[in-house]
Amino acid sequence: MTAEEARLAIQELTGRINYHNDLYYQKNKTEISDYEFDQLLEKLINLEKQFPEFIQPDSPTQRVGGTITKEFISVQHRYPMLSLGNTYSEEDLIEFDRRIAKGLDGEKYEYFCELKFDGVSMSLIYEKGVLVRGVTRGDGVRGDDVTTNVKTIRNVPLVIKAKDIPEIFEVRGEVFLPKEVFTKLNKEREDVGEERYANARNTAAGTVKMQDSGEVARRKLDCYVYSLLGDPDVHTHESGIKKLESWKFNVSPTYKKCGSIQDVIDYLKEWEFKRLELPLETDGVVIKINSIEQQEQLGFTAKSPRWAIAYKYKAQSMSTRLNGITYQVGRTGAVTPVAVLEPIFLAGTTVKRASLHNANEIARLDLRIGDYVFVEKGGEIIPKVTGIDLSKRDDSCEVIKYIDKCPECGSKLYRIEGEAAYYCPNVTGCPPQIKGRIEHFIQRKAMDIESLGERTIDQLYSLGLAKTPADLYDLKKEDVLRLEGFKDKSAKNLLDGIAASKERPFESVLFAIGIRYVGKTVAEKLARYFKNIDILAKASYEELMNAPEVGEKIAKSVFDFFQKPENQFEIQRLKQAGLNFQSDEKEPEKESDVLGNKSFVISGTFEKYDRDQLKDIILKNGGRVLSAVSGKLDYLLAGDNMGPSKREKAEKLGVTIITENDFEKLLNS
């Protein structure tokens, strides 16, 4: 392919993929399958690697992430990002309105109301229509440059194609995790034995500051914009919003222009409960003067604008009787207490259960059966108990003694040092653990067996047809026909789905077998690093620690998993069933012998490369990558935050320790 052909192909693919992205994310429509879309994206990625000089500024490959940012540069805001004054009462709003009227000396004015989204404030800077910088709020004067992470947000435009755009302008918005994404993220963490995230807002804030933009992309952040700055043709807040909409920015359609403070109060009442149906968390309403000239006339205090205020809704909380506690057992054996409540109607739904988190929380609250408890409904599906109404406690309230045996199988519970949860140790005999492992195994990110579901797994278990994932591959048509609701066609679909899962790649199988703390991303890294299940199974703790994304907790979990005979037997059965336990990722093509068969151990974090990139460079240039420091090692390539034990061992054995700059000199020698 000539350079000109490549330029045109990259241009055409960029346009096509952006078109389909816009259909999917802005209009909720699709014209091609996920597979076809992925093929287009893969083709573009490959072309851009060969001809990087032709990468378009709005290339969809920038949404995928992959850049490692060791430090986020501090940037001064062109327009300070001031905080707003808060109020919880209509009286305060009426007083705010009086101050506005006085400050404007009798001029007519109108308000603009927008829901206050519970996320992370973000400043987006555009030059000549191209997104050049995304900056966090920080202290309001300076924030962190998180541009590489912002570019992964699908509905943040990378390029504005319009005639009426200023040379430089700024867009303010709120980056957030949608409720559905946050719930899935917590389910995934629960699935691999990690603690759940506390709330979507803090999780979004942590995601925005992640060093690996590839991981940020997988989190599927979203963004609503709410302000346009730096456009001299914008004279009202409303006209700025309309421009942002015409430029294809994602603006929540929940705003309203109001002619009086009573209209504002009516808007607050309209959205008090309706906001709970939105796909993200909200905690109030921002009320601002619509006219930009009047905003400038009213000015600022030292901390906030005089022309705007935030009305905060009070948390949706009610008191009801605690009738009892049930205990749920998850796939990893973790036991979770759930409050059984006298039903109440809270924030639009009837609530019968609420989360109690763990034994520590029950003890902290000094909770008793019969107590009247305060229940709040936030972003979680299950509301939470936040406190006790002690004025209603009487002598009949029963002190709660946390269970010491599994509610499902009767095994004695145990606690892992440093963790709040209790666990059931009966891995092979506790029904919810067994069924949970099969449910984990068949999910979309694992073996992707769509025709299997929770109800079918429950039937298979009850009939003794599936006690482990490997049993699925022994199923016959006559076995499936024993299941309620299954006929010839549905039985064939199920068996075909199971057979098709044998084509899933090694990283999916590794995730599916359910090693604690090994999520999808870690499974991908382990599969790439160790290449096949046999090498991984034989890896020492130290060798596991050398793998990317692996810390002490994961290394110990993986090592312990492969020491257990029942896990070894299960993997052997899955091998015999024909599952893929070998990475099909090809070694990079050799470019030179400049490293002359020298061996390297890579450890720590690096400014210009991630560890996978360094490994590829070493292999392409005739070097070898080892997993552990030994006397035969040529170089320890040391980045920041490298474990001190590796350095000590290398120094003791006389191994040459090199930096990232030293490595580049080796390549160019």
Automatic annotation (TrEMBL):
<keyword id="KW-0460">Magnesium</keyword>
<dbReference type="InterPro" id="IPR012340">
    <property type="entry name" value="NA-bd_OB-fold"/>
</dbReference>
<feature type="binding site">
    <location>
        <begin position="34"/>
        <end position="38"/>
    </location>
    <ligand>
        <name>NAD(+)</name>
    </ligand>
</feature>
<keyword id="KW-0234">DNA repair</keyword>
<keyword id="KW-0464">Manganese</keyword>
<feature type="active site" description="N6-AMP-lysine intermediate">
    <location>
        <position position="116"/>
    </location>
</feature>
<feature type="binding site">
    <location>
        <position position="424"/>
    </location>
    <ligand>
        <name>Zn(2+)</name>
    </ligand>
</feature>
<dbReference type="Pfam" id="PF00533">
    <property type="entry name" value="BRCT"/>
</dbReference>
<feature type="binding site">
    <location>
        <position position="409"/>
    </location>
    <ligand>
        <name>Zn(2+)</name>
    </ligand>
</feature>
<dbReference type="InterPro" id="IPR041663">
    <property type="entry name" value="DisA/LigA_HHH"/>
</dbReference>
<dbReference type="Pfam" id="PF03120">
    <property type="entry name" value="OB_DNA_ligase"/>
</dbReference>
<dbReference type="InterPro" id="IPR010994">
    <property type="entry name" value="RuvA_2-like"/>
</dbReference>
<dbReference type="InterPro" id="IPR001357">
    <property type="entry name" value="BRCT_dom"/>
</dbReference>
<keyword id="KW-0227">DNA damage</keyword>
<dbReference type="InterPro" id="IPR003583">
    <property type="entry name" value="Hlx-hairpin-Hlx_DNA-bd_motif"/>
</dbReference>
<dbReference type="Pfam" id="PF03119">
    <property type="entry name" value="DNA_ligase_ZBD"/>
</dbReference>
<dbReference type="InterPro" id="IPR013839">
    <property type="entry name" value="DNAligase_adenylation"/>
</dbReference>
<dbReference type="Pfam" id="PF12826">
    <property type="entry name" value="HHH_2"/>
</dbReference>
<feature type="binding site">
    <location>
        <position position="114"/>
    </location>
    <ligand>
        <name>NAD(+)</name>
    </ligand>
</feature>
<feature type="binding site">
    <location>
        <position position="430"/>
    </location>
    <ligand>
        <name>Zn(2+)</name>
    </ligand>
</feature>
<feature type="domain" description="BRCT">
    <location>
        <begin position="590"/>
        <end position="669"/>
    </location>
</feature>
<dbReference type="InterPro" id="IPR001679">
    <property type="entry name" value="DNA_ligase"/>
</dbReference>
<comment type="function">
    <text>DNA ligase that catalyzes the formation of phosphodiester linkages between 5'-phosphoryl and 3'-hydroxyl groups in double-stranded DNA using NAD as a coenzyme and as the energy source for the reaction. It is essential for DNA replication and repair of damaged DNA.</text>
</comment>
<dbReference type="InterPro" id="IPR013840">
    <property type="entry name" value="DNAligase_N"/>
</dbReference>
<keyword id="KW-0520">NAD</keyword>
<dbReference type="InterPro" id="IPR036420">
    <property type="entry name" value="BRCT_dom_sf"/>
</dbReference>
<keyword id="KW-0235">DNA replication</keyword>
<feature type="binding site">
    <location>
        <position position="288"/>
    </location>
    <ligand>
        <name>NAD(+)</name>
    </ligand>
</feature>
<feature type="binding site">
    <location>
        <position position="406"/>
    </location>
    <ligand>
        <name>Zn(2+)</name>
    </ligand>
</feature>
<dbReference type="InterPro" id="IPR004149">
    <property type="entry name" value="Znf_DNAligase_C4"/>
</dbReference>
<keyword id="KW-0862">Zinc</keyword>
<dbReference type="InterPro" id="IPR033136">
    <property type="entry name" value="DNA_ligase_CS"/>
</dbReference>
<dbReference type="GO" id="GO:0003911">
    <property type="term" value="F:DNA ligase (NAD+) activity"/>
</dbReference>
<dbReference type="InterPro" id="IPR018239">
    <property type="entry name" value="DNA_ligase_AS"/>
</dbReference>
<feature type="binding site">
    <location>
        <position position="312"/>
    </location>
    <ligand>
        <name>NAD(+)</name>
    </ligand>
</feature>
<feature type="binding site">
    <location>
        <begin position="83"/>
        <end position="84"/>
    </location>
    <ligand>
        <name>NAD(+)</name>
    </ligand>
</feature>
<dbReference type="InterPro" id="IPR004150">
    <property type="entry name" value="NAD_DNA_ligase_OB"/>
</dbReference>
<feature type="binding site">
    <location>
        <position position="174"/>
    </location>
    <ligand>
        <name>NAD(+)</name>
    </ligand>
</feature>
<keyword id="KW-0479">Metal-binding</keyword>
<feature type="binding site">
    <location>
        <position position="137"/>
    </location>
    <ligand>
        <name>NAD(+)</name>
    </ligand>
</feature>
<keyword id="KW-0436">Ligase</keyword>
<dbReference type="Pfam" id="PF01653">
    <property type="entry name" value="DNA_ligase_aden"/>
</dbReference>
